[in-house]
Structure formats: structure tokens, C-alpha cells
Amino acid sequence: MGKSKELFTCRDVLWFLVFYGFAINYMLRLNLNLTIVAMVLPHSKPTAVVQCNVENSTLLWTNETSQNNNVSSSFSITKPSSKNVTYEDRFAWNEYEQELILGAYYWLHWLLQLPGGLLARRYGTKLVFGLGNLLTALLGFLIPYATHLYALIILRMLQGLIAGVIWPSMHDMTAKWIPPNERSRFVTAYLGSSVGAAIIYPLCAAVTSFFGWSASFHVTSLLSIMWYCLWKFLVYDSPQQHPRISDDEKNYIMDNIAKSVNEEETQIPWKSIILSGPVWLTIAAHWSSAWGFLTLMTQAPTYFNFVHGWNINTTGILAGTPHILRTIFSYFFSIMSDWLLRTKRLSLTNVRKLATFVCTVVQGIFLIALGFSGCHPLSAIVFMMAGTAVNGAMSSATFTNLIDLSPNYASILLGFANMIGTWTGFISPAVVGILTNNNQNVGQWRLVFLIAAANSIVGGIIYIIFGTSKEQPWNQYVKLNSKEREMQELTTEAIKSDNGTEKANDIEKINFIKER
Q: Which of 262, 275, 334, 501 is deepest in the core (most CB within 10 A)?
């Protein structure tokens, strides 16, 4: 079967619900990044107004205080009178405390990355991925009632801990459902996370403007529960378990993944994985891409609000739009990657290296440009959008490379990679908090982006020089062990045998096993 004749195959339905599920994952993760702008007391003036030559800039500033007084100040550079303005529902958190809150999601997020892959292998991605999103959403309902700084931090830590199982669990399902020549395109479903980011920023801005900041958390959690109902009744862990899949589609999938995926691979070659050079090189690139992306994703609302003075609605649009571009870029880049493989214009390893170059080195270049555009908001917007968009190549880079290295243990590899890569999620905000605490200026933010750029470029170059996408020998760990045992048994029998004919037959068997 080349192509299914069905209008929507089970793989199409799976792609859509995985896409939606990752969108939910990021909506639950990022809703606070934008909403925190409306939760804290506003600054009197944007940093760029104070430090830069505003008269010659294109800075657009709609001060929140002026909105509360029904004063139009779209191009205002002075703060209107605020004597009648109160902020009873806002908190006096400084920059360091705000970054603690933003980073708290990642403090324990790494802890269940590896167990997430193991749980998916044992209980199935359907259960692990589904409950990961559902429980995170239920905790989201409680956030508006966490009025103390540390209560909010604890809730975010719990959300991050539970959500840690989500990403690695999906690789197990991908390896069982998707043939190798479709994986780059299918993994674009993971970039539903970017659509979730693109939606959540303007959505939270609009909901906050009309109903207050607490409503944004309720809306996000309700959308998550709607997704879980679809996931529960439409998704199955493997083609063999799906009651509505056609025989043609099932046979096509099984024929194309049979060589690399072995359902009997229950033993895990921990030593081989931990000592694997290709795995560590992929993790280095994963770290690099993650640091740059998480810096852009987490800090964009704060940066454009406090440095360039955009109000919450404008900030929501600015912070969300790049993620739509990231999804579009990822989709078309994945099509190109699969085409390069299908036409054999590049090897599998070189396709992955090309994708890694784009999502690390090119991303790093845009981060450097962003760092030096502090007094030019329009340039900052362009570089922020471009840096976020090119990260979409990750779907054809490290994410897919982990499946290439070992389809049987893909979920474990992603859990291992994310366990380390996720540390960037709390290290980066900590760096921002230290650099900008009571020191919000263009120079400090330049340091933030230059540090992110250095991380992004170095790890990418290391992978490009030394990385590989060849399937590792330990992917067939059980099969290799069974061969070794069979050879040992036959060798023993051949040595003990007194009959020359039997001995010759045993030697032939040994040679046959070696050839296999």
C-alpha cells in the first residue's frame, strides 16, 4: 500500500489528536508567562523609554495605567496621573520573585522525564500522555486561589512534575504507529505545542482584559478536559489494538516498522544507552535548541512588556505569532527532510545534521541579533519571530534522531534527553532573574540573549561535527542476547559431540546464526 484510500486514516486522526494534545500541554505550561504581566504591579515607564532616544524610535506604548483612566496614549512617553488607580488584585513581586514563579514549572519537570518513557512502555502512551495533561489541567483550576507566592510556586512545581511524562511517552507511540519515511512529518504534530503557545498568549490577554487574570487559567483547563474526552475514545496504543483500522493500513504500518520495532524488547540496555556517544551528542544538540527556544518562549512577554512597553493585548499577539511561524516552518521543513531521504539526495545522518544546524546555529544567530536590537522594537520583533520560527526544524532534528538511533527505546531516549534538556527551563529564568532584578535595562537583557545564543550554537556545532543517526546495535538488545546464548549452547554441544557429522551440523548452525 502506497497511500490509503480512506479520507482520514487512523494515522491522520492520531496526528490531529497528538497535535491538539501538545497544544494543550503548552497552553497549560505557558498561560502564566503572559498572565503574570497582569498579576504584578506595572512599571512606571518602559526601560526603552528611559534608556533610548524615543523621539527617533518606533516605540508604541499603551500604558496600562492610562487604560484604567480611559486616556488614550498610544504614543505616550509620559505616565499619566495614577492617583485614582488601585491594583487590589495584583502582587508586588520583584523581578527575582517573578522569575522564581516562571521557572518553578521546570524545577521538578525533569524528574519524571525518564520514568515517563518507562511508564509508556509498560502501560501505554494513551494512559500516560492522557493523564499527564488531565491532571495538569485539574491543578490549573487551583492557581487563581493560590494567593501566596510560595503556594503558587508549589502548584507550578506539581504541574511541571506531572507534565514531565508527556513528551517522552509519545515517542513510544510514534515508533509503533509511524513508518521511518513518515516520521519527520508526523513529529510535526509535536509542534502543536507551538500552536498552543500561539493561541494561549492572545487568548489569555483577551480573557484577562474582559474577565480578569484568574479566568485565563479556568479557560485553559476547560479546553484541556475537552481534549481528554476525544483522546480517551479515539486513540489506541498500537495498530493491532485499534478496532476501526483498515487491514490495508495496519498491514502497511506493520510491514514498514517490522525491521526496527520489536514488541518483545522488554529488557532495557541501560549501560549501552548511558555510554552511547551518539545519544550524548544528540542530547547536547537538544540542550542547545531548548535553551534558546525556552528563553524566547518564556521571556518574550516580560521583555516586550517591561522593556518596550507593549500592553498585555499587544504583548499577547507579539508573543504568540512566532509560534504559528514555528509550526509552519516545521511542517514545510519536515516535508523537505522526508523528500531528501526519499530521493536519497542526503543520507539520514546529513538530513538530521542539516535540521540541527537550523534549529541551533541559525537560532543562535537570531538571538545575537535580538540582543543588539534593544532600542529598536521593530527589529527586536523580527529577530524574536525568526529565532522562534527556525526552532521548528527540531521536529526533523533531535526529536526524530532519537527514534532513528533506537525505535525500540525511543521513549526512554527522549525521557533521558528531556531530563537533561529541561534543566534549561529553570536555569534560564534564574539567569534572567539574577541579571534583571532591580536592574531592568537593555544591557542586561542583551546578556540574557547572548548567553542563550552561546548555548544554542556550541551544542549544535558539536553535533554537526560528530553526530550520527545510524540505528544503534543495542536497539535489538533481546535479539542480540538470544543469538549469543544460542551460539554458546551450540558451541558447547559441538565441543561435547563425538559424532563428526553432528559436529559439522552444529558448526553450520553456528555460522547460520552469525550471518543472521
A: 334
